Amino acid sequence: MAGHVFSALSVLVLASGILAEKWWENTVIYQVYPLSFYDSNGDGIGDLRGIEEKASYLSELGVGAVWLNPFYKSPKVDNGYDISDFRDIDPQYGTMDDFERMLRTFRDKYGIEIIIDFVPNHTSDQHEWFKKSVKKEGKYTDYYIWKDPIGWENGKPIPPNKWDLFQFWLEKGVKGFRIDAVPFIFEDEDLTDEAFYGEETQSLPEAYELVEDMRAFVDEYGEEHNVDIMLMTEACVKPDMVLKYFGTPESPGAHIPSISCSSLISGNKRTLVGLITLLPAIWEV
Question: What is the pLDDT of residue 283?
Answer without folding.
Answer: 44
